[in-house]
Amino acid sequence: VHESHGVQFRLGTKAKAFKGDGQVQTVELETGETLSADLVIVGIGVKPATDFAEALPLQDNGAVRVDQYLQAAPFVYAAGDIAQFPYFATGEPVRIEHWRLALQHGRIAARNMLGQAVPFKGVPFFWTGQYDLKLRYVGHAEAWDDVVIQGSLEDKEFLAFYAQGEQVMAVAGIGRDRDIAAISELMRLQQMPTAQQLPQIQDWPAQLHP
Question: Which domains can be identified in the chain, with CATH numbers?
Answer without folding.
Answer: 3-36 (no CATH), 51-113 (3.50.50.60), 125-208 (3.30.390.30)
